[in-house]
Amino acid sequence: MNNRDTGLLALRGEAIGEILPQSGKEEIFQNKTLRPILKLQNDIFIESFINYVNKSKSDFYSLSTEKKMHFIDNAVHKDIKFRNALKGMVMAMFTIEEFREYILNSSNLNKRMMNLVIERLKDQVQLLAKPA
Fold this sequence. Notes:
Blueprint: H1 3-12, H2 25-40, H3 42-56, H4 65-78, H5 80-91, H6 96-104, H7 106-123
Helix pairs in contact: 2-7, 4-5, 4-7, 5-7
C-alpha cells in the first residue's frame, strides 16, 4: 500500500455499519468505503449543494421542506454534471484497491453512492440555509 492509500484510510477511519459474514460485496463496499468517505466529505457536499442552488437561481430557500426534498432528489438524479461532480468528490477518496473494486461494479455502486448522498443532504436540509 502506498503513502496516499495509507493516508486516506487513516483520514477516513473505520467502517460505518455492520459487516457480517453474509454481507454481500456491495454492502461491504458501502459500509467500509462509501459511508466513511461520505462522512468525511460531508461539508464539501453541503457547500457544493448550496453553490448548485445559488447558480440555478431557484427559489429553493423559500420552498417547503417536502419540496426541498424533491429538489434535492431532482438535482442529484437529473443534473448529470452535478451528479458527476459529487461522484468525483467520493471517488477521489478511493484507494487504488477500492477503485479497482469499484470499476468492477460501478453501475450498482454509483446508485448506492448517490442514494447515500441524497439521504445525507436531506437529513441536513436545515443546514441548507441561504448564505448571509
